Every structure is written in structure tokens, then in C-alpha cells.
Amino acid sequence: MKKIERPPVDDVLIKQILGIMIIGILIIFVNGYLNLTVRNSPAMGFVCIFGAGLISLFSIHLLLFRNTGKVFLSSLIVLTLILLSFQILGTEREIALAWLFILPLIAFYTQRLIWGTVYSVSLILVSLGISYFRFKMHITPAISPGAYIEGAAVFSVITLLTFIYQMSIEKKEGTIFIQYFRDALTSLPNRRKLIQDISRRRENTLILVNIDDFKEINNFIGIAGGDTVLGEIARRLDTFRMISGVTLYRLHADEFALLISGKKDLQTAVNIAEKIYSLVNTDITIEKTAIIVTVSIGISDCHDLLATTDISLKLSKSLKIGYCIYNSEMEISKRYEDNINQLYRIQKGIENNSFIPYFQPIYNIEENRVSKFECLIRLVDDNEILTPDQFLNISMRSKKYPFLTRIMVSKSFEFFKDNDYSFSINLCLEDIINDETTSHIYSELERYGIGHRVIFEFLETERIENNPEVLCFLKRIKRYNCLIAIDDFGTGYSNFDFILRMNFDFLKIDATLIKNVLEDKNARILISTIVKFSRDLGIQTIAEFVATEKIYQKVKELGIDFAQGYYIGKPEEDISVYA
Fold first, then answer.
1. What pTM does this model have?
2. Angle, nearest 10°, between helix axes 329-351 and 401-416?
3. pLDDT for 365-405, tens place per residue?
4. Distance CA 438, CA 431 (A)
5. 3-state SS string over 41-104?
6. Which residue of 214, 313, 402, 447 has the smallest Cβ count within 10 Å?
7. Cα–Cα distance, 65 to 69 (Å, whole number)
8. SS3 (DSSP) at 4
9. 69-81 burial string, b = 16+ CB within 10 Å, else e?
């Protein structure tokens, strides 16, 4: 029977156990006092008082460490010794036999089925042995032989009932164990059990075995046939459990694991992997039809065992080789694989026209209304909306970024052509020095004729300063009456002379200043300086990351012209709510 741990002991149960123990302590202590003063049995008196003292110590231990198993076992030993002392000294009344009746319950609780039974049977045999010894030695018992026989009968009934009850409890625990730690199809230990076993030992070696193209196998021969394949693979892998220290697990639909516990043994793992490959990669017959099943295998004995073995398994699959052993260079390979996946999503998004603009409202504080929006790119991929942090960096490194900017320009212009809102589009240096991108911007400005409502928001100030191509671009878009904003002004690189020369229309105050505006006095002073400087030059200010009403009120108090952030509104595809 598999043993599972008992649930944690809560405070209510601790109090209940302590209450029972205190009552028992009082009973034993009073019994000892009566033996000393009334019954003239000093030996038994001292035994009872000493036993009550020991159980008091156990109660304190329970209160401090909450270990019910040790406390019950210790109490069981003390009560057993008291009972045997009663019988050996022969100075107690017949009520002493009542102690026998509770001991099996404690024994079965602390020692479970097998040892609880051994204890109970041993106790009654020892008790009867003491009685027989007293009878042979002609020691007049204080308890009649009939009482011993009656007590033995009662004790046997209690032991039997407790045995039956404990057996049913452990059967239920065994069922729970199977359901929680076993795979229903193969009856092998599952992923939970693997994680538990890994955590119990410092040194392990793990082998992951994954069935190649199992989804296609299921589609081809049906779910029942797929289950047959899994059962046959499990049967073949089960032969490796004959090797000392090896445990087989089924993790999920098409994956198995073999754990070599207690040691790092790559050579054994490699030998097993080679045998697995030859043993599993053979025909499996399903309803008189033979199908070929192949597997990929990953091996690791490194830290974070499951993750590192999974990396080696994925590399084994992608390279289409029998097995791979994990090493640190595979982390780099995994990053390459992630980059390839991201690049594929970007390319697919461009081809399928899946990049769309979302619009975050910008609130005109003086006019008390939303007057403009910032256009922010999103990628729709399999009904999932991806934000720029999930694809923008790789798009820049892969030279796909200009395509995304041109998509944003076209879709934003098309969206705002028939309303009166102003809208801003983010540009970086790569956009401005890309001839195709700037030509596309000029073309869309000509086509839609709404340049007076377009705000181009420049990122990375330190990179665009003194760049002649940037200056040419600024002069060109000013002909269409476009407005210009500078992003993240106020921290890091902030050149006031640059602002004077570039003739910006908006300054977006850096988010770190706005987020700390309530607590940081220096932030408020710097914001006030920027606002005064901007107002004197006829430049309007925008506060980003206005997340709460308190921040909004402080921004308003400091004289900032516009507010943007989640308190005003999140980026959304639909702006009709602001109409």
C-alpha cells in the first residue's frame, strides 16, 4: 500500500488534541495522587505522576512544533508503560483495564495498519503473559482472572474494528494516491510524482522520450488506436525499470520520462537512450496493420532538470536525431529557435495583413475632453493580440520594422480620415533615414490631405539630434502642417537647446516623473520647470502614465495641458466610446 502524507494540521485540530491531552493529564495525575494518599500505592502514584509530567511535555512540544505523529507515538509509549506497571505491581483496580481500549486507536493512527496491528496483538499477549506470570508465582492479583479475560475480549473486538476501519482508510488513501500521482491510461507515475521525486534528491539524471508526430498518429488510427500505441510504448519502456534506480513516468499525451535517481550518470542515461531508440522505433501492429513509431529523446543531469531536459528534447526533434544531451550552449540554440518563431509570426502578420493600430486617448485638460489619440501597433495572431514588446525588437533586428511603420501610417490615416480627431504616430531614426518609409509618409499626406491633424512623435532624442536627414524630414512634413512631439522628455538625455532649434509642438513628459509626482518633490519641481519653459515657448505638454485620479489631479494642478494613461483610457481598437 502506497503511503501518502496526511494533510497539514490546522489550529482548530491542534486545540482539540491539546484539550484531550489536558483531560488525560488530569485523569492520570489525579489517579497518581489518589494512589499516594488514599490507596497506599506509592509506586503506582509515582508512575502516574511521572507519566502525567511526560505527557505535559509532549503537549508543549505539540504546541511549539505541531507534530501530531510524534506526540501521539510518545503518548502511546507512556500509556503502555503505565498500563504494564498497573499489571506488574498489581495494585490497581479493575478500571485499569480500560486503558487497553484506547491504545489500539492511538497505535493505528500513529503506526498505520501493519504496525498498529503488530502493536495491538503484542500488547494483549504481553498483558496476558504478565497475568500468567503472577498466577504461576502465586501473587494474588488485584484484578480477577475473569476481568482479564473480559478485558482481553473487549480489547480484541476494539482492535478488530480499528483494523477494519484503518484498512478502509488506507484503501481510500491508496485510491487518492493512484488518482493524484498515477496516469490513468498506463498506471505509471505522472508528472506530479516526477516533480516530487526530483525534489527529494539532489542528484538525478532525467531522460525525456517524446513520440514524434503523435497527433498525426491519433488522426490516422483514432483515439483508441492512439491509446494502444501509448500502452505498447509504456510496455516497452517498462523493461528499463529493471535497472537499479530507474523509474518510469508518463508526463502527458505523448511524452514519457525515466529518472535515474540519486546520482548523475550520463553514461547510463546514454546507454538507456540508445536502447530505447532501437526498442521503440519498430513497428507496432494495430488491428493487423503495422505502423512505424519514432521517438525523440532528451537527456540532462543539470540544474532545473525538467527545463534543461526539455531543451535537449526539442533540439533532438528539430535536428531529427535520436537523442541530445543538454549543455549550456543549447540555451543559445533555444533563443535562436524563439527568434525564428517570432520572425515567422512577423512575416506571417505582414503577409496576412494582421498588424493593426490600437488607439490610446489623450485628454485635453483645459477643454475637458479627449481631443487626440496615440496610434500603437498590435499583431493579431491566432486570435491572440500581441503587444510591441513581443515582436518589435526582433522586427528591428530582422529589418522588418520599416514594413510595420508603413502599415501603421496607412491604417492610421485611413482610420482618421473621416473624423476630427488628431492622432500621433511614433517614428524612430530608422524610419526617418529609410527612403521608402519617408516617401510613403509623404505620399499618404498628399493622398489624405489631413496633415494638420497628424502628430509625428519622435523617439530616441539623442540619436536624432543634429542628423541632417532628420532636419530635412522635419522641414518637409511642416509643409503639410504636421505637428511634432518629442517623447520621454525630462530624464536621461534632455537638451533644452535642441528643443529650441527643432521647433517642437508638444513635449511628452517622461513617465518616471509622472509616476512619482505624488511622492517625489524633486519630480514636481522638474515638471514645473518643464511646464514653464514649454509655455514660454508656446509648446504644449503631455503627461504620460496617468494611472490614477490622484495623479491626474496633480498633473492638472501643475499646469500640464494633456493627460494620457490608463486613468484616461487603455489602447483600444474602437474609439466610438469617446464620440
1. 0.48
2. 40
3. 999 999 999 999 999 988 889 999 888 888 887 788 999 99
4. 7
5. CHHHHHHHHHHHHHHHHHHHHHHHHCCHHHHHHHHHHHHHHHHHHHHHHCCCCHHHHHHHHHHH
6. 447
7. 11
8. coil
9. eebbbbbbebbbe
